[in-house]
Design brief:
- The protein is α/β, with parallel strands linked by helices.
- The protein has 3 domains: 126 residues, Rossmann fold; 111 residues, Serine Threonine Protein Phosphatase 5, Tetratricopeptide repeat; 154 residues, DNA Cyclobutane Dipyrimidine Photolyase, subunit A, domain 3 (Orthogonal Bundle).
- The protein is built from 20 helices and 5 strands.
- Strands 3-2-1-4-5 form a 5-stranded parallel β-sheet, with helices on both faces.
- Helix 5 links the parallel strand 4 and strand 5.
- Helix 10 runs antiparallel to helix 11 and helix 15 runs antiparallel to helix 16.
- The longest helix has 22 residues.
- The radius of gyration is 23 Å and the shape is globular.
- The termini are far apart.
- Bound molecules: flavin-adenine dinucleotide (FAD).
- Flavin-adenine dinucleotide binds next to helix 9, helix 11, helix 14 and helix 16.
- This is DNA photolyase family protein.
- Belongs to the DNA photolyase family.
- It comes from Actinacidiphila acidipaludis.
- Keywords: Chromophore, FAD, Flavoprotein.
- InterPro entries: Crypto/Photolyase_FAD-like_sf, Crypto/Photolyase_N_sf, Cryptochr/Photolyase_FAD-bd, Cryptochrome/DNA_photolyase_1, DNA_photolyase_1_CS_C, DNA_photolyase_N, Rossmann-like_a/b/a_fold.
């Protein structure tokens, strides 16, 4: 009996899964393996929201495999050592893995290749599992990656996508392989109260609902904060319970302006991944330095107010509270909360990026760090010194104030757009609100930023 191992990482699904399809085609039996990687556990990346969502995904994957006559094998420890152990136990001659761009994933792949080769086992890395278009698949003439989105998107759009693969009907797993029990969501403490559920079933149901009921209006409504009219597929794409190739193919099949706008956003995900694959240090260092000397004075107090959602700017506070409550934030909220920290408070983008990674269920090194850099003006934004004014943003993207009233209960009784400027309410009304005064004056902050960037 020939055996192949499929090492699942951030591709926790059975539909449209090239490594699993290749393993089934190449061997009589397959070991679907997930290793609870002690290095990730120690890195501080395995925060409660993502650990709980991951537990759902693993339970879903195990259930899906059991429906097909198999099961998930779970191990803990050093990922390379555990894969080698499973290879020895089963006599497997090939391991399949999805390619991933982070520095950590690259080093895992290198170590795996070395150790498996020494054991006489092949490693096959499959692209376009985690991405619709793999990092490096399209490049400009003069560089190893695109630094600007628009030309990237043009090339990305013209790149032929592979076909979508069906989920297997059956998965034959060798008998007698030891496995730990699948982690349980209920064992994870400290999660956000309204954290979404994970798992492939959940992901596929959400995608189907989205294609049926949300996609057509996406072009017009994706920035409407209160409307909550985006797909919320990001955690499913992050953990790979949905295939980006399938999302793009099905959206294109649906067609229309909403589909075009949605596909463009999925391309942003690939864009950041190809930047990180080419410049792994961009997860911690400025991609394009602006020689910032980030503010130190009183910064800790301001950062604490920002994290708690008590800056005195209701739209920023609403976004930050959504993050705490749901482990997720609307994209427009992310943009304006990040701009407020990095530009208005002129605080190091890494401080904000860390806080987002501590809470976001879709927290992803490439998309989080590079979006933060985009907002801070140290990344790929072609207008690096733009500053988002939270009051103007609020009027535009939450015109009636419903988003603020939902997330900032202290302001729930303030009607209409007045909720965006509580400091203009009559004194009597204001003194009755348990809501802070603005922690910073916007025009002073803008002057400070412009001076710091040498723009005055
Ligand atoms: C400061 C900041 C931090 C961010 N951190 C993350 C992160 O850690 N993980 C993450 O997945 N996204 C991140 N984003 C991007 C974006 O905000 C989220 O992907 C989006 O809000 C998820 O909601 P949705 O699934 O409803 O998106 P939709 O609007 O429905 O978009 C569909 C999909 O496209 C992708 N996408 C959309 N916008 C972007 C973008 N700007 N960059 C990359 N991919 C995008 C996502 O995979 C998303 O699920 C960040 C954005 C900012 C400004």
């Amino acid at each position: 009996m020939s055996v192949h191992v499929v090492l699942f990482t951030c591709d926790l699904r059975l539909h449209d899964h090239p490594p699993l399809a290749a393993a089934r085609a190449g061997a009589d039996e397959v070991v679907p393996l997930f290793v609870r990687d002690q290095r990730i556990g120690r890195s501080g990346f395995a925060v409660p929201n993502r650990s709980a969502f991951l537990a759902d995904c693993l339970a879903g994957l195990d259930a899906g495999l059991r429906d097909r006559g198999g099961r998930l094998v779970v191990r803990s420890g050093d990922v390379v050592a555990e894969v080698c152990r499973v290879v020895t136990e089963t006599g497997a001659d090939e391991v399949h893995l999805a390619g991933s761009p982070s520095a950590y994933a690259q080093s895992r792949e290198r170590r795996l290749r070395e150790e498996l080769t020494a054991q006489g086992c092949r490693l096959t890395v499959h692209q376009e599992v985690v991405h619709a278009v793999a990092p490096g698949a399209v490049t400009p003439a003069s560089s190893d990656h695109f630094a600007v989105f628009t030309p990237y998107f043009r090339r990305w759009s013209g790149h032929p996508l592979r076909g979508v693969l069906r989920a297997p009907r059956q998965v034959a797993v060798p008998d007698g392989i030891g496995s730990e029990s699948v982690p349980r969501r209920s064992a994870v403490k400290g999660t956000s109260p309204e954290l979404a559920r994970g798992g492939e079933k959940e992901a596929r149901a959400r995608l189907a609902d989205w294609l049926r009921g949300g996609l057509d209006a996406y072009a017009d409504r994706h920035d409407d904060l209160a409307g909550d009219a985006t797909s919320r597929l990001s955690p499913h794409l992050h953990f790979g319970t949905l295939s980006p190739v399938e999302c793009v193919q099905r959206a294109r099949g649906h067609g229309g302006e909403g589909a075009d706008a949605f596909v463009r956003q999925v391309a942003w995900r690939d864009f950041h991944h190809q930047v990180l694959a080419a410049r792994p240090k961009a997860s911690f260092y400025d991609y394009r330095t602006r020689h910032d000397h980030w503010r130190q004075d009183a910064a800790a107090e301001d950062v604490a107010a920002w994290k708690e959602g008590r800056t005195g700017y209701p739209i920023v506070d609403a976004a930050m509270r959504q993050l705490t409550q749901q482990g997720w934030m609307h994209n427009r909220g992310r943009l304006l909360a990040a701009s407020f920290l990095a530009k208005t408070l002129y605080t190091d983008w890494r401080v904000g990026a860390r806080h987002f990674l501590d809470l976001l269920v879709d927290g992803d090194v490439a998309n989080n760090q590079l979006n933060w850099q985009w907002v801070a003006g140290t990344g790929t934004d072609t207008r690096p010194n733009r500053v988002l004014n939270p009051v103007a943003q609020a009027r535009r993207y939450d015109p009636d104030g419903a988003y603020v009233r939902r997330w900032v209960p202290e302001l729930a009784d303030v009607e209409g757009p007045a909720v965006h400027r509580p400091w203009t309410l009559p004194d009597k009304r204001r003194s009755g609100l348990d809501y802070p005064e603005p922690i910073v004056d916007l025009s002073d902050a803008l002057d400070h930023f412009r001076q710091a960037r040498g723009l005055n």
